[in-house]
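Async update (no meeting this week)

Hi team, since we skipped the sync, here's where things stand on the single-chain job. The sequence we agreed to prioritize is pasted below, unchanged from the tracker. I ran it this morning and attached the output directly underneath so nobody has to dig for it. Comments welcome in thread, and please keep replies under the output.
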Amino acid sequence: MKIKSFLLSIVLMCSISLSSVAQQASVKRVILFIIDGISIEAPSKLNMPTFNELIKKGTYIPESYVIVPHHPTVGSYSEYNTCSFPNPLIQQGTLFLSPKNKMVQELFPKEQTALVVNAIDYRSLSRGFSTAIQDVTMSDADVVNVSIRILQDQHPVFMRIHLQAPGTRGFEISQSTPDKPYFRNIFGKDSPYVKAIENADKLLGKFVFFLKKENLFDSTVLIITGDHGENKTGWHSLYNKECWRTPLLFVGANIAQGREFSYFEQTDIAPTIAGLLGKDGPNHDGASGKYVKEILKSQDVSNYHPQMYLKRLDEQIRDFNFLRAELITSGKQDDSFINVAALLENGNFGEPFYSQDRILDWYKAGTVQHLLEVNQKVLDRVKSIMAEKKAGM
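Output:
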């Protein structure tokens, strides 16, 4: 009897193992479909029938958090990166960004991978893609058409498709003049941003139709998101909370249908792509993300308890910059505030604050938990000093 029970256990274990392997094997490709600067309000405010229909068939995060979408063009970051913070973070899957880090496409050196985007700002992300097309003369429609041809001819295992027009139109609105009906309002009358987002949804529909027509959809995981959100007045400043959040949708092979999470972190995208394709994440350090298996229909969502690191870090960086600005402006009436600002800038409150200007030094914190602890200590100390000074005025 004991032998029979033992053999039965072995059979069950093998069945579970084979089932797991079969599940992984059924995902033949992952496609990251980025709609640049898509606002968290876009799916509900705009005409996006394709995206909204796919929400019902996948796992949806209405407000996924991204790192502050800062885009330095001077300093050490700009020496290695040609795009805003969220983009290398998506590919590297860690807050400890480094040119030495591996990117998710580099996990597949013997297979076809592809990047297609109608901009040249993503040059620093192209390393490791077997095909990388970055052509500013292409329209969003061209990007989708080229992507379809690549899928037909090269059969990539991973692909990043990036529609740039919405982000570009958002920037144009931020620079528009009062005579425009969409002045300081991406959802205003005749808004070019609205037109670009709604066109992106039509192109998404065309792309999904192709996947289904070619019998590729059921073996594909399609991830639809923005690299960052969009300010209502246009563009993406690091201080605006709307820019820290963007919709995120997983749909396709083995993905749970009708599931919704209230929180997700951009650091988890790369390791989740890797995990879906049977690989470990590209980087393993004190700030790397994880494979979020709870997007799978086979997984229990009760196990999903995100730490909300990005939300806290974004808020700390915003507070730091506003606090620094307040110190400087207060210095007009009292020079001692300027001294506090200088101490803050020079890192004289213990371990220096890990701000956006030090992003390539964030790894020195060791872990994201320690980074957040240091930042909070600095903020609390400076706020306390300011309160004392104001009370004495």
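Quick observations from my side:
Residues 10-25 have pLDDT under 50 and may be disordered.
The CA atoms of residues 74 and 357 lie 10 Å apart.
Reply here if anything looks off.
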